[in-house]
Amino acid sequence: MFQSMFLSLKRRPLPALRYSTVALLSLLQISLWYPWLSQAHDDIRRQTRLKNQAVSEWQAIQRQAIALENVRFGEYAWLEHRIVARKANVATQWRIEGSQTLVQWRSLLEEVQRRFSLSVLTVSWEREKNAQWHGVLRFAIQAPKANRSFHNWLPTRLDDTRFIPADWLLLSTMRTAKSTSALIEYKHRRHWVQAGSWLPDAGLSVRSVALGQVTLVEKGGALQTLLIRDFGGVGE
Questions:
Q1: pTM value?
Q2: What rounded mean pLDDT belongs to the chain?
Q3: What pLDDT score was predicted for residue 14?
Q4: How far is it, in rounded angstroms, from Cα 168 to Cα 73?
Q5: In whole angstroms, what is the distance from residue 71 CA to residue 98 CA?
Q6: What is the pLDDT of residue 100?
Q7: Which of 27, 141, 195, 214 is the most buried (most CB within 10 A)?
Q8: From CA 219, how far away is CA 101, in angstroms rounded?
Q9: What is the greatest pairwise CA distance in the chain?
Q10: Strand order across the beta sheet in which 233-235 lies
Q11: Source organism's superkingdom (predicted)?
Q12: Cα separation of 110 and 118, whole Å?
């Protein structure tokens, strides 16, 4: 009896799932997984974009590195330049060196920044007695940018203001066995100077000191002579 009852139950068909129920369960499962799938998809897109951007920048650096290796500065024969570092056989650092007036240095650096995208790593400036500056600059080669900022890498501000004779007065000169010194006054401030002295407030250096006169050099290289008991300057 029990066996016949079991068999009759076993033969009874299971209730069929409705399509609406299946659809509802599917939608529930999708709603549970969607946030994770969406985040994973966004992460993949972001990583792909960053990878493509890195590849594009590296290719741009390669093109610029080749240009720097072959660049010629015809107007600046005094300049020495060379590649000083590489990565995966691609130039990554560039070095320039030379001695010239600040006016010429400014012109060169403006052209360099116009043609190439660089970031400065090290800068060394040494003022020379002939109104020139010896500079050594080392740069990292970067991917070119359409709107890059101009940087002033000069050792001092180069103003195009004119020399004003009334600001200067040569008070006296004194010669010793080894050198000649002069006492000058600039805007009511007095300084003892010798050949090679630097006057940062005025932006001038002293080229030479002789009995009765001092020759100054402007940043741009122009010469100005002060005469004793003379409130004026005579440009050379």
A1: 0.56
A2: 80
A3: 44
A4: 39
A5: 16
A6: 92
A7: 214
A8: 7
A9: 142
A10: 198-199, 204-210, 213-217, 223-227, 233-235
A11: Bacteria
A12: 12
Query: Which contacts qualify for 190-195: CB closer than 8 Å, 24 or more apart?
Result: 195/129
pLDDT at 232: 44
**CA gap 210, 179 in Å, rounded:** 9
Tokens 């000069």 found at: 154
Helix/strand/coil (H/E/C) assignment for every residue in 12-42: CCCCCCCHHHHHHHHHHHHHHHHHHHHHHHH
Q: Which residues, in sequence order, are bridge partners of residue 233?
A: 226
Token readout for 163 is 């020399």
The contacts of residue 236 (CB under 8 Å, 6+ apart) are 215, 223, 224, 225
Q: Pull the structure tokens for residue 28.
A: 């529930």
Beta carbons within 10 angstroms of residue 225's beta carbon: 18
Residues of the chain short of pLDDT 70, as ranges, are 1-20, 22-27, 30-31, 34, 37-38, 40-42, 146-147, 158-162, 220, 229-236
Dist. CA 67–CA 90, nearest whole Å: 12
Confidence at residue 7, expressed as pLDDT on a 0 to 100 scale: 46
What is the Cα–Cα distance from 228 to 185, expressed in whole angstroms?
11
Give the Cα-Cα-Cα angle 46, 51, 52 (nearest 5 degrees). Answer: 100
Residue 196, C-beta contacts closer than 8 angstroms, at least 6 positions apart: 129, 205, 206
Name which of 200, 116, 104, 114 is nearest 154 in CA terms: 104
190 contacts 181 by C-beta, under 8 angstroms: no
Residues 173 and 180 sit within 8 Å (Cβ to Cβ): yes
